[in-house]
Design goal:
5-stranded parallel beta sheet; 7 strands
């Protein structure tokens, strides 16, 4: 499929992607959220997930993502097994939603945290939301209640943010004050409106 109007929104853990996504939505952009799709797919595949990782990953409403995360981020083979199960299902759903958006012939975002890592989506334009590694650790520990060790494990499972920054079509630097993020995002939105017609 040709992603002619799609722009991949990506970054790293705790760089501020959700905040940027919220601003884009407020400005009238459709955002297809790979994480939301992943949550749905994960719960739909809870039986297969329990077969792979044991029943302790289950909770009342499907899969306990915190328990599952602590297992897969500590073991590369287990992480790869989970990705092999989920990624094709997530990809299929993103394609389905993208076909609808492509017909509208206007720019939209696909929020894919592991866009560069997965190498699955042939999307030519990317927005990278940037924060320094030290900020990622600090913000992630505060936001998700993770230990520094857990944060480092998760960061080490991703391509370094400094590399992603170099590959960006549009860069939103969120390493400064929180109140400047809105202005920086609006600047990128205006640029996209000029570029993607």
């Amino acid at each position: 499929m040709d992603f002619e109007y799609a722009i991949a929104l990506t970054g790293g853990i705790a760089t501020g992607k959700s905040s940027v996504s919220t601003i884009f939505k407020a400005e009238g952009f459709v955002v297809i959220d790979a994480d939301k799709i992943a949550h749905t797919v994960l719960n739909q595949a809870s039986t297969e997930v329990a077969n792979l990782f044991g029943r302790e990953v289950l909770c009342d409403n499907g899969v306990n993502r915190k328990v599952l995360g602590s297992i897969v981020f500590a073991n590369l083979q287990k992480r790869k097994a989970l990705e092999a199960l989920l990624h094709p299902l997530i990809y299929h759903e993103i394609l389905k939603q993208s076909r609808v958006e492509e017909m509208k012939r206007k720019p939209y975002l696909i929020d894919i945290p592991l866009f560069f890592e997965s190498n699955r989506y042939q999307i030519s334009r990317t927005i990278v939301v940037y924060a320094s590694r030290a900020q990622q650790i600090e913000r992630g520990m505060y936001r998700d209640g993770l230990s520094k060790e857990e944060m480092l494990r998760r960061l080490n499972a991703q391509i370094e943010i400094e590399k992603k920054r170099q590959w960006a079509t549009y860069l939103i630097d969120n390493s400064g004050e929180q109140n400047t993020l809105y202005e920086k995002t609006i600047k990128v939105i205006n640029q996209i409106k000029k570029d993607v017609v």
